[in-house]
Amino acid sequence: MFENDYIMRQIEGLTRFLAKVLMQKDMGSTDVIDEQGHLDPGNFLLYRLQGMVGQGAINEAEDLLFDTIRAEPREAYLKVAIDFYSLLQGMEDDALKTADFTRQEIAEGLRDVRAIYGADGPDALV
């Protein structure tokens, strides 16, 4: 019980930190086409991840996220990672367990994202 509370606090703290690094952002719907009619790679990735999570393929979704981030660590993908882990954080424990995923893995994933992008704020992304 206490371990779960600790993990939840870690997840919330890391999510808040990463959100602050990027400033406030809109948590609305995911538009995969931008205003000019072009495919938005960040939003398209988020759309794919959300679909995979909905199908219970959380581990595969996380693998796709990290494959994409490591190949090209765009700032847009950092926003996607924050949204992805926020989505997972909001899931029930039973749903995570069914998908063979844990809250500890959420915290570890956020730490890994933070390590890839650096912990010194937006300037570290350049």
Characterization of this structure:
This protein has 126 residues and is mostly helical. It has one domain (2-23, 41-125). The chain is built from six helices and no strands. It has helices at residues 2-21, 41-54, 58-71, 75-89, 93-98, 103-117.
* Strand/helix succession: HHHHHH
Quote the average pLDDT: 80
What portion of residues is helical?
Answer: 55-70%
Structural class: mainly alpha
- Low-confidence parts: 23-29, 121-126
Strand content: under 5%
- Per DSSP E runs of 2 or more residues, the count of β-strands stands at 0
Largest sheet: none
Number of helices: 6
Outline type: globular
Measured on Cα atoms, how large is the radius of gyration?
14 Å
Give the distance, in angstroms, between the N- and C-terminal Cα atoms. 41 Å
Whole-number tally of structural domains: 1
Give the secondary structure arrangement, pairings included.
Blueprint (H helix, E strand, L loop, with lengths): L1 H20 L19 H14 L3 H14 L3 H15 L3 H6 L4 H15 L9
Helix pairs in contact: 1-4, 1-6, 2-3, 2-4, 3-4, 4-6
Features:
126 residues; mainly alpha; 6 helices; 67% helix; 0% strand
Short summary of the structure?
The chain is mainly alpha-helical and 126 residues long.
